[in-house]
Protein backbone atom coordinates (compact mmCIF):
# COMPACT_ATOMS: atom_id res chain seq x y z
CA UNK A 1 0.00 0.00 0.00
CA UNK A 2 2.85 2.37 0.84
CA UNK A 3 4.42 1.81 -2.58
CA UNK A 4 1.11 2.52 -4.30
CA UNK A 5 0.35 5.69 -2.33
CA UNK A 6 3.89 6.98 -2.73
CA UNK A 7 3.39 7.10 -6.50
CA UNK A 8 0.12 9.06 -6.42
CA UNK A 9 -1.07 12.55 -5.57
CA UNK A 10 -1.52 11.26 -1.99
CA UNK A 11 2.25 11.23 -1.65
CA UNK A 12 3.92 13.81 0.55
CA UNK A 13 7.12 14.43 2.44
CA UNK A 14 5.44 13.09 5.60
CA UNK A 15 4.31 9.89 3.88
CA UNK A 16 7.77 9.29 2.47
CA UNK A 17 9.40 10.02 5.84
CA UNK A 18 6.95 8.33 8.25
CA UNK A 19 5.48 5.67 5.95
CA UNK A 20 8.41 3.24 6.04
CA UNK A 21 8.61 3.57 9.83
CA UNK A 22 4.86 2.97 10.17
CA UNK A 23 5.24 -0.56 8.86
CA UNK A 24 8.14 -1.35 11.20
CA UNK A 25 7.35 -2.89 14.60
CA UNK A 26 9.74 -0.77 16.66
CA UNK A 27 11.50 1.90 14.62
CA UNK A 28 14.07 4.21 16.16
CA UNK A 29 12.27 7.18 17.73
CA UNK A 30 13.18 10.40 15.95
CA UNK A 31 10.31 12.29 17.56
CA UNK A 32 7.90 10.69 20.00
CA UNK A 33 4.15 10.30 20.26
CA UNK A 34 4.23 12.34 23.49
CA UNK A 35 5.85 15.29 21.69
CA UNK A 36 2.93 15.29 19.26
CA UNK A 37 0.49 15.08 22.19
CA UNK A 38 2.14 18.17 23.72
CA UNK A 39 2.40 20.11 20.46
CA UNK A 40 -1.16 19.36 19.36
CA UNK A 41 -2.34 20.39 22.83
CA UNK A 42 -0.65 23.77 22.29
CA UNK A 43 -2.28 24.09 18.87
CA UNK A 44 -5.71 23.27 20.30
CA UNK A 45 -5.27 25.77 23.13
CA UNK A 46 -4.39 28.47 20.61
CA UNK A 47 -7.49 27.51 18.66
CA UNK A 48 -9.66 27.82 21.77
CA UNK A 49 -8.18 31.23 22.57
CA UNK A 50 -8.90 32.52 19.08
CA UNK A 51 -12.18 30.62 18.73
CA UNK A 52 -10.84 28.77 15.68
CA UNK A 53 -12.37 25.41 14.89
CA UNK A 54 -9.68 22.75 14.55
CA UNK A 55 -11.58 19.47 14.15
CA UNK A 56 -8.80 17.58 12.40
CA UNK A 57 -6.19 18.69 14.93
CA UNK A 58 -8.56 17.57 17.71
CA UNK A 59 -8.99 14.16 16.08
CA UNK A 60 -5.23 13.77 15.59
CA UNK A 61 -4.70 14.75 19.24
CA UNK A 62 -7.12 12.05 20.36
CA UNK A 63 -5.35 9.42 18.25
CA UNK A 64 -1.94 10.36 19.65
CA UNK A 65 -3.42 10.43 23.17
CA UNK A 66 -4.83 6.94 22.70
CA UNK A 67 -1.41 5.58 21.75
CA UNK A 68 0.27 7.41 24.64
CA UNK A 69 -2.39 6.20 27.04
CA UNK A 70 -1.61 2.62 26.09
CA UNK A 71 1.96 3.15 27.30
CA UNK A 72 3.55 3.96 23.95
CA UNK A 73 4.26 7.66 24.46
CA UNK A 74 7.99 7.29 23.92
CA UNK A 75 7.81 5.42 20.61
CA UNK A 76 8.36 7.09 17.25
CA UNK A 77 5.47 9.35 16.20
CA UNK A 78 4.95 7.17 13.13
CA UNK A 79 3.55 4.61 15.53
CA UNK A 80 0.30 6.58 15.84
CA UNK A 81 -0.74 3.81 13.46
CA UNK A 82 -1.09 1.71 16.62
CA UNK A 83 -4.33 3.59 17.32
CA UNK A 84 -5.81 2.27 14.08
CA UNK A 85 -4.54 -1.22 14.80
CA UNK A 86 -6.19 -1.09 18.24
CA UNK A 87 -9.49 -0.09 16.61
CA UNK A 88 -9.24 -3.27 14.58
CA UNK A 89 -8.46 -5.51 17.54
CA UNK A 90 -4.77 -5.95 16.79
From TrEMBL:
GO MF annotations in UniProt: NAD binding
Source superkingdom: Bacteria
InterPro entries: 6-PGluconate_DH-like_C_sf, 6PGD_dom2, HIBADH-like_NADP-bd
All residue ranges annotated as the 3-hydroxyisobutyrate dehydrogenase-like NAD-binding domain in the record: 1-84
SUPFAM superfamilies: 6-phosphogluconate dehydrogenase C-terminal domain-like
Coiled coil regions in record: none
Name this polypeptide is given: 3-hydroxyisobutyrate dehydrogenase
Originating organism: Mesorhizobium tianshanense
